[in-house]
Amino acid sequence: MVKVIVGTQFGDEGKGRAIELLAPDVSVVARYQGGANAGHTIYVNGEATVFRLVPSGIIYPHILCVMGNGMAIDIAELINEFELLKSKGIKFEHRFFISQLANVVMPYHKVRDDTAGSIGTTHKGIGPCYEDKYARKGIRIIDLIYPELLKLKLTQNLQSTNFDSIYEQYKDFGEYIAPYVADTSLLLNQWIDDGKEVLLEGAQGLLLDIDHGTYPYVTSSHPHSGGACCGLGVAPTKIDEVIGITKAYITRVGNGPLPTQLPIELEEKIRAKGKEYGATTGRPRRCGWLDAALGKRAIMLNNIKKIILTKLDVLDDLSEIKICTTYKSENSKLFPICELASGVEPSYETLPGWKTPTTHIKNYNDLPRAAKNYIERIKELLNVEIMAICVGPTRENTILV
Ligand code: GDP
Ligand code: IMO
Ligand code: MG
Questions:
Q1: In terms of CATH architecture, what is 244-400?
Q2: Residues of the chain with pLDDT under 50
Q3: What CATH fold (topology level) applies to the domain 2-238?
Q4: Each residue of 160-173: pLDDT tens digit?
Q5: For strand 96-99 and strand 181-182, is the pairing parallel, antiparallel, or unpaired?
Q6: Ligand 2 environment, Cβ below 6 A
C-alpha cells in the first residue's frame, strides 16, 4: 500500500506525530516537498524533537527514508539534522536516500526571501529556491557532486565576490552528502513494486499550496497529495490512499486570512495550552475554531476518506466550542482561497464543551459524551472516517478508532 499524508489546514496539524503513529507498520517514508520551512515534532526517548528536512520515519531503525526531488534542501540544515540524529543514537547510514534531482537552497536564496515581510515566510529561502528551479537555473543535489557542474551553475547564478567561498563550501557539502545521493524515483518504484508499505510525507498543509492555497499567502510548493507524484516520481495510479491530518481547531503562522480566528483572550488560552508557537521560527501561531468549510475543500481536493484528528485535549477546558460550517456570503460556501473573498464571515454552530481532561483516555467509549458529539459532528461535516484521535503529544496519548 502507498499512502500519502497531507495536512488539511495551514500546516502544523501534527503530521510528524501522525507519521510516528503509522510508521511502525511501514517500510518506507518519503518526503515530497518543502524544505526547512517545515517543523515536524516527534518524541524521541521522551523528548520533543523537531525535524525540518529528514522524514519523520527516521526514528525507526527498520524504515528506509527518502528526501524527494520535489524538496528544497538546505545542506547546512541537513548536516545539523544529521548531528541531531547522531546525538540521539539514531543510525541512518544505509537507509537514507537523497534525490539527486532535489533543488538546493543557497545562501543567496535566504537573502532574497520575503525581504518586505509581506507574506511572513519562514525566511528559509524556500520561495527564491523554487523561483530558480522554475527559471531553470536552480542548483540541484547532483551539481554538488560534480565540481565542474557546480562551478558552471554558480557562474550562472552569482557574480558576487564571495563566489569562491560558496563554491568551496558547497563542494565540501557535496562530498559530505555523496554517500546518500541516489536515483530515489527508481528506488521508490522498485520498493512499491516489491509490495513494501510506503508513506509519502507532505509538509505544510493544503491551504498553503501554491495553487490551491490562499495565494499569495502560501508556500512555493505543492503540499497537495498530487505533489507526492511529481515530488517523488510516483504515478497517481500507484497511490492507494490519502490520509488527512486535522487539528481539532485551527492555527496559522505567517500572514493571510484566518476567518475563524479567536478573540484575543481565548486565542491566548488556546495558544498557551496547545503550545502554539512555530516549531521553526518560534512565532506565535494565530488560533481559530475548526473550520469545516475549509476542511471540506482539503478533503475534496485530496479525496481524503480518513483523517487523524489531533490535539483534542487542547479544548478540554472550554465550556463551549464552535465549528465553522459554512460562510455567510453566497459565493464562498467553501473556503475563500482568493483575495476576492477576504473578509468573509463564518457561520458557526456551537456545541457544549466537556470540561474534563482527556489526555489519559485510551478508548473512544471512555471519552466524555460532549467530546464524542464534537468528534461525530466533525465526521459528519467532513464526511470522513476518523482513524485516530490524539489527546496529547506522544504515541501513548492516542485513541485508535
Ligand atoms: P506538523 O508540522 O504538522 O508535524 O506539526 P508541528 O510539530 O509543527 O506542531 C504540532 C505540535 O503539537 C507539536 O508540538 C506536537 O508535539 C504537538 N501535538 C501533536 N499532537 C498533539 C495532541 O494531540 N495534543 C497535544 N497537546 N499536542 C500535540
Ligand atoms: P509544517 O510542515 C506552518 C508558512 C509560513 C508563511 C508561508 C510561506 O511544519 O506544517 P515559506 O517559508 O514556506 O515561504 O512561508 O507558509 N509555513 C508554514 N506554516 N507550518 C509549516 O510547515 C509551514 N511552512 C511554511 O509561515 O506563512
Ligand atoms: Mg510544523
A1: Alpha-Beta Complex (3.90)
A2: none
A3: Adenylosuccinate Synthetase; Chain A, domain 1 (3.40.440)
A4: 778 889 999 999 99
A5: parallel
A6: 7, 10-12, 37-40, 119-122, 124, 126-127, 203-205, 208, 217, 219-220, 253-254, 279
